[in-house]
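ok so i was messing around last nite and threw this chain in just to see what happens. nothing serious, just curious
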Amino acid sequence: MKELFLDLSMGAAGDMLTAALLGLVEDREETMRELNGIGIPQVSYEIQPAIQCGISGLHMKVSFCGQEEGAEEHCCRHGHGHEHEHDHGHDHEHNHGHEHRSLKDIEKTVASLKLSEKLKGQVLDIYRIVAQAECEVHGRTMENIHFHELGTMDALADICAVCYLIDKLAPAHISASPVRLGSGTVKCAHGYMPVPAPATALIIKGMPVFAGDIEKEMCTPTGAALVRYFAEDFGQMPEMTVDAVGCGMGSRTFADRPNCLRAVLGQAHEGVIELCCNVDDMSPEAVGFLLEKLMDEGALDAWYESVGMKKFRPGVIISCLCTKAQRNKMLNLIFKHSSTIGIRETLCRRYVLKRQEEILESPYGQVRVKCSKGYGVERRKAEFEDLARISRERDLSLEEVKKQLCL
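result:
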């Protein structure tokens, strides 16, 4: 399974994430042509090599009307860029591509872009994450909220590029480290604001974060929204075989550490999650329905075991085996269709034989055969439903059917 891991120990910003993902792409020049062909009005992308603390990476330069983002005073949108005043969803006086735009304005712009409908939908979903946060911060409704930081064309460029690159890389699962937020205050048009900025503080709800020892803003609203949307799990880098590493460098430099966001792409080692819960107040019909629902929704396996519980009550342990990518879906199903108030999780190593299905032509019609091999063994097993069909049609026992088919 292709895994994408984001190292956010130095924070998260749209340009750094874009550069890190671009570092994972093999056909980088062609990808840059594709990004510049998206059609964001008066915006261009340029990738530049960058070295910090002896480590090489990439810096993404996004220009509006030929001028790089953050080039003007009070125009630094990213907390990782020049140390000017920051915007963070508040009014400021320049007009260099940073007009205040409503959600309808942004929807109109996104509709004109040369992106698939899927990617357009992702871009707008990310804007809505920030819109909801802005509504809570300013006490407004979604209809009359105006984006300031995210109303900029360079912010749109970052969001479109990240969506495009993740779609191009096509990871099966995305995980991330806890996010460094920074600390202290940041100056904006309305005065000094605490770090994280108010909108960022709302966006990161439910995400593992830490302040760290740097008194700067390390996570922007754009970065927070992108991570919130794409990251499915948070924690240490999962066990994987690494295929590529991309380092996206910020403009701000530190004497003792590189200011970079790392993206790691690789093949995750096969592992599964076992979800379990104990219940003593469900009917057999309800337990059976839950197990059937779990299997219908893609669980690798689902079963129950009879156990004795507190107060000498007979009960069951309901178990579900699933992939990491399926975890949240299975958790929701178990909570929805059972009476449990808690679920245990165990990460298991999994060793499997390579499997494929063959079609056997027989006098009784086609029979599906499951073939598996590896670890020095090879097995063939006919699909039970096909054997049962022949058994009913020919009035033969299952063993007689298997014997006649040489299975």
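not much to say yet. The longest helix spans residues 117-138.
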